[in-house]
Amino acid sequence: MLKLYIHPLASFCHKVLIGLYENATSFDSHIVDFADFGSAASHIERWPVGKIPVLHDSANNRIVPETSIIVEYLQHHYPGPLQLIPDDKERQLDVRLWDRFFDLYVSGPMQKIVTDRIRPEGSSDPHGVAEAHATLDTAYAMIEGQLYGRQWITGSDFTLADCSALPALFFASIVHPFGPDQRELHVYLERLLARPSVQRAMREAQPYFKFFPYREAMPKHFLEVAE
Q1: How many whole angstroms separate alpha carbon 129 and alpha carbon 135?
Q2: Distance (Å) of CA 1 to CA 16, 179, 197, 210
Q3: Residue 98 has what pLDDT?
Q4: How many domains does the chain have?
Q5: What is the DSSP letter of 179?
Q6: Model confidence over 195-226: pLDDT tens digits?
Q7: Is residue 83 part of a domain?
Q8: Which of 85, 165, 183, 191 is deepest in the core (most CB within 10 A)?
Q9: Distances in whole angstroms, Cα of residue 39 to Cα of each of 9, 30, 35, 45, 206
Q10: At what angle do helices 67-77 and 89-102 cross, to 10 degrees?
Q11: Do 213 and 162 share a structural domain?
Q12: Entry pTM
Protein backbone atom coordinates (compact mmCIF):
# COMPACT_ATOMS: atom_id res chain seq x y z
CA MET A 1 0.00 0.00 0.00
CA LEU A 2 2.92 2.35 0.66
CA LYS A 3 5.39 3.52 -1.98
CA LEU A 4 8.26 5.82 -1.08
CA TYR A 5 9.90 7.74 -3.90
CA ILE A 6 13.53 8.38 -3.03
CA HIS A 7 17.12 8.57 -4.13
CA PRO A 8 19.52 6.55 -1.94
CA LEU A 9 22.08 9.39 -1.75
CA ALA A 10 19.56 12.06 -0.71
CA SER A 11 19.99 12.85 2.99
CA PHE A 12 16.35 13.82 3.55
CA CYS A 13 15.31 10.40 2.25
CA HIS A 14 17.45 8.76 4.93
CA LYS A 15 15.46 10.57 7.59
CA VAL A 16 12.20 8.92 6.49
CA LEU A 17 13.83 5.55 5.84
CA ILE A 18 15.16 5.47 9.40
CA GLY A 19 11.63 6.11 10.70
CA LEU A 20 10.21 3.34 8.54
CA TYR A 21 12.90 0.86 9.57
CA GLU A 22 12.52 1.71 13.25
CA ASN A 23 8.94 0.46 13.11
CA ALA A 24 9.44 -2.28 10.52
CA THR A 25 6.78 -0.61 8.36
CA SER A 26 6.13 -2.45 5.11
CA PHE A 27 6.68 -0.31 1.99
CA ASP A 28 8.16 -0.37 -1.50
CA SER A 29 10.90 2.09 -2.45
CA HIS A 30 11.17 3.57 -5.92
CA ILE A 31 14.26 5.46 -7.04
CA VAL A 32 13.66 8.77 -8.79
CA ASP A 33 16.37 9.41 -11.37
CA PHE A 34 16.35 13.12 -12.11
CA ALA A 35 18.86 12.54 -14.94
CA ASP A 36 16.23 10.46 -16.72
CA PHE A 37 13.54 12.57 -18.38
CA GLY A 38 10.78 10.00 -17.91
CA SER A 39 11.55 9.37 -14.25
CA ALA A 40 11.83 13.09 -13.49
CA ALA A 41 8.65 13.96 -15.40
CA SER A 42 6.67 11.26 -13.60
CA HIS A 43 7.82 12.54 -10.25
CA ILE A 44 7.03 16.16 -11.07
CA GLU A 45 3.56 15.06 -12.08
CA ARG A 46 3.30 13.29 -8.73
CA TRP A 47 4.61 16.30 -6.76
CA PRO A 48 5.18 19.43 -8.87
CA VAL A 49 7.74 20.88 -6.46
CA GLY A 50 9.96 18.01 -7.59
CA LYS A 51 11.48 17.24 -4.20
CA ILE A 52 12.05 13.84 -2.61
CA PRO A 53 11.08 11.86 -0.65
CA VAL A 54 7.38 11.57 -1.39
CA LEU A 55 5.09 8.88 0.01
CA HIS A 56 2.14 7.44 -1.91
CA ASP A 57 -0.47 5.65 0.19
CA SER A 58 -2.66 3.77 -2.26
CA ALA A 59 -5.05 2.63 0.48
CA ASN A 60 -6.00 6.25 1.19
CA ASN A 61 -5.25 7.51 -2.33
CA ARG A 62 -2.95 10.15 -0.92
CA ILE A 63 0.38 11.70 -1.81
CA VAL A 64 2.33 12.77 1.27
CA PRO A 65 5.39 15.05 0.78
CA GLU A 66 7.89 16.59 3.22
CA THR A 67 9.90 14.42 5.59
CA SER A 68 8.44 15.45 8.94
CA ILE A 69 4.90 15.23 7.58
CA ILE A 70 5.60 11.76 6.17
CA VAL A 71 6.83 10.48 9.55
CA GLU A 72 3.83 12.00 11.33
CA TYR A 73 1.45 10.57 8.73
CA LEU A 74 2.95 7.10 9.19
CA GLN A 75 2.61 7.33 12.95
CA HIS A 76 -1.05 8.28 12.62
CA HIS A 77 -2.06 5.80 9.91
CA TYR A 78 0.51 2.99 10.25
CA PRO A 79 1.70 3.08 13.88
CA GLY A 80 4.48 0.79 15.04
CA PRO A 81 6.04 -0.10 18.38
CA LEU A 82 8.20 3.04 18.52
CA GLN A 83 6.43 6.37 18.86
CA LEU A 84 8.65 8.89 17.11
CA ILE A 85 6.46 11.88 18.07
CA PRO A 86 5.40 11.78 21.74
CA ASP A 87 1.86 12.42 22.95
CA ASP A 88 2.93 14.89 25.61
CA LYS A 89 2.53 18.40 24.17
CA GLU A 90 5.63 19.87 25.80
CA ARG A 91 7.81 16.99 24.64
CA GLN A 92 6.27 17.31 21.18
CA LEU A 93 7.51 20.88 21.01
CA ASP A 94 11.06 19.80 21.85
CA VAL A 95 10.99 17.04 19.22
CA ARG A 96 9.57 19.33 16.55
CA LEU A 97 12.05 22.08 17.41
CA TRP A 98 15.10 19.84 17.06
CA ASP A 99 13.70 18.16 13.98
CA ARG A 100 13.43 21.57 12.33
CA PHE A 101 16.79 22.62 13.75
CA PHE A 102 18.63 19.75 12.05
CA ASP A 103 16.79 20.30 8.77
CA LEU A 104 17.28 24.07 8.65
CA TYR A 105 20.58 24.73 10.42
CA VAL A 106 22.58 21.58 9.69
CA SER A 107 21.18 19.98 6.52
CA GLY A 108 20.49 23.35 4.89
CA PRO A 109 24.02 24.80 5.16
CA MET A 110 25.56 21.39 4.47
CA GLN A 111 23.69 21.21 1.17
CA LYS A 112 24.78 24.76 0.33
CA ILE A 113 28.43 23.72 0.72
CA VAL A 114 27.95 20.52 -1.28
CA THR A 115 26.00 21.99 -4.17
CA ASP A 116 28.39 24.91 -4.52
CA ARG A 117 31.13 22.44 -5.42
CA ILE A 118 29.17 21.16 -8.44
CA ARG A 119 28.05 24.54 -9.78
CA PRO A 120 29.20 25.47 -13.29
CA GLU A 121 32.57 27.20 -13.47
CA GLY A 122 32.31 30.88 -12.63
CA SER A 123 29.02 30.58 -10.71
CA SER A 124 30.31 29.62 -7.28
CA ASP A 125 29.12 31.54 -4.23
CA PRO A 126 32.07 31.89 -1.81
CA HIS A 127 30.20 34.33 0.44
CA GLY A 128 27.23 31.96 0.73
CA VAL A 129 29.55 29.03 1.46
CA ALA A 130 31.34 31.03 4.18
CA GLU A 131 27.97 31.84 5.75
CA ALA A 132 27.04 28.15 5.63
CA HIS A 133 30.24 27.18 7.46
CA ALA A 134 29.54 29.85 10.09
CA THR A 135 26.00 28.56 10.54
CA LEU A 136 27.34 25.05 11.10
CA ASP A 137 29.75 26.36 13.74
CA THR A 138 26.83 27.91 15.60
CA ALA A 139 24.64 24.82 15.16
CA TYR A 140 27.35 22.44 16.39
CA ALA A 141 27.87 24.50 19.54
CA MET A 142 24.14 24.50 20.27
CA ILE A 143 23.80 20.75 19.65
CA GLU A 144 26.83 20.07 21.88
CA GLY A 145 25.12 21.92 24.72
CA GLN A 146 21.77 20.25 24.13
CA LEU A 147 23.30 16.76 24.20
CA TYR A 148 25.01 17.13 27.58
CA GLY A 149 23.53 14.52 29.91
CA ARG A 150 21.18 13.14 27.22
CA GLN A 151 21.29 9.85 25.33
CA TRP A 152 19.29 11.23 22.39
CA ILE A 153 18.76 14.81 21.32
CA THR A 154 15.61 15.43 23.40
CA GLY A 155 16.20 12.92 26.21
CA SER A 156 16.15 9.17 26.75
CA ASP A 157 13.83 8.34 23.82
CA PHE A 158 14.77 8.03 20.14
CA THR A 159 12.43 10.34 18.21
CA LEU A 160 11.76 12.05 14.90
CA ALA A 161 14.44 14.58 15.84
CA ASP A 162 17.06 11.82 15.95
CA CYS A 163 15.89 10.54 12.56
CA SER A 164 16.55 14.06 11.30
CA ALA A 165 19.89 14.32 13.10
CA LEU A 166 21.60 11.35 11.49
CA PRO A 167 21.71 12.37 7.82
CA ALA A 168 22.26 16.01 8.74
CA LEU A 169 25.26 15.31 10.98
CA PHE A 170 26.69 12.48 8.89
CA PHE A 171 27.08 14.59 5.75
CA ALA A 172 27.78 17.86 7.58
CA SER A 173 30.63 16.28 9.54
CA ILE A 174 32.30 15.43 6.23
CA VAL A 175 32.17 18.95 4.76
CA HIS A 176 32.62 20.76 8.11
CA PRO A 177 34.19 18.46 10.73
CA PHE A 178 33.27 18.70 14.40
CA GLY A 179 35.71 20.50 16.64
CA PRO A 180 38.12 18.37 18.74
CA ASP A 181 36.44 19.65 21.89
CA GLN A 182 32.92 18.69 20.72
CA ARG A 183 32.93 15.29 22.37
CA GLU A 184 29.16 15.06 22.77
CA LEU A 185 28.66 15.51 19.03
CA HIS A 186 31.24 12.83 18.19
CA VAL A 187 29.68 10.34 20.61
CA TYR A 188 26.13 11.15 19.49
CA LEU A 189 26.93 10.55 15.82
CA GLU A 190 28.59 7.23 16.66
CA ARG A 191 25.57 6.25 18.75
CA LEU A 192 23.29 7.08 15.81
CA LEU A 193 25.45 5.12 13.37
CA ALA A 194 25.28 2.06 15.65
CA ARG A 195 21.48 1.95 15.51
CA PRO A 196 20.19 -0.93 13.29
CA SER A 197 17.74 1.29 11.36
CA VAL A 198 20.56 3.70 10.55
CA GLN A 199 22.95 0.93 9.57
CA ARG A 200 20.38 -0.40 7.12
CA ALA A 201 19.84 3.03 5.55
CA MET A 202 23.61 3.53 5.28
CA ARG A 203 24.15 0.11 3.67
CA GLU A 204 21.59 0.91 1.03
CA ALA A 205 23.19 4.29 0.35
CA GLN A 206 26.75 2.99 0.30
CA PRO A 207 26.94 2.10 -3.42
CA TYR A 208 26.02 5.72 -4.18
CA PHE A 209 28.52 7.41 -1.85
CA LYS A 210 31.08 7.43 -4.68
CA PHE A 211 28.94 10.16 -6.30
CA PHE A 212 29.06 12.44 -3.25
CA PRO A 213 30.86 15.65 -4.27
CA TYR A 214 33.09 15.52 -1.17
CA ARG A 215 33.84 11.83 -1.60
CA GLU A 216 37.55 12.33 -0.82
CA ALA A 217 36.68 13.54 2.69
CA MET A 218 34.31 10.66 3.49
CA PRO A 219 35.67 8.00 5.89
CA LYS A 220 37.01 5.16 3.75
CA HIS A 221 34.95 2.40 5.35
CA PHE A 222 31.77 4.04 4.04
CA LEU A 223 33.13 3.72 0.49
CA GLU A 224 34.24 0.08 0.62
CA VAL A 225 31.08 -1.34 -0.95
CA ALA A 226 31.12 1.35 -3.61
CA GLU A 227 34.62 0.49 -4.83
Answers
A1: 10
A2: 16, 44, 21, 32
A3: 98
A4: 2
A5: P
A6: 999 999 999 999 999 999 999 999 888 887 54
A7: no
A8: 165
A9: 16, 10, 8, 10, 22
A10: 140
A11: yes
A12: 0.94
